[in-house]
Amino acid sequence: MNKINIVNNELKKTKLDKSIECSFDINDRYGINVLKLIIKESTDIELDIEAKEELTIEINILVLDNVTSNIYENINGKKAKIRSKYELKKDSNLIIKKINNIDSIKEQSIFSLNGENASVKRVLKTISNGNEKYDVIVNHNSKSTKSDIINHGVNIEKGTLVFDVSSIVPEDMDKCYVNQSNR
To answer: Which residues pair with residue 113 across a beta bridge?
Structure first.
């Protein structure tokens, strides 16, 4: 399994095979760290993110044609701002399983299903004892695409959870499947 470990705003270690291209740079305009992954072959990825203080990061993932990938993402720590952008090409399949254990998070995830038969399933599980806000946008930009967005959260103490999920299917895109579940 491929492994990526980010602590605060630094890429600490990676263990990657030839199925993935990876870069970690600073966006000069905004000073934000950007993790870019190109998934070229079917593979599994473990992504561990730790925010000991405050973390701000953008994650860009491109899944090429005919590729299936599972991403197991764990976010731990104090405070994080994360924007993730996923682009899925023809006949690609992405399954994301996220477990968050963080005091405060603001996360935006944008999925662009750009290839016919592209499919994404994202499952988030979190226990909130602070402020957590999740914005998810799924763009069905091709025919016969599928999205399944599942958010499960529990509030404890003074925790608040906000899930805002939008799926966009243009008029001329047929045979698309859209599902979302928040609880």
So the answer is: 88, 140
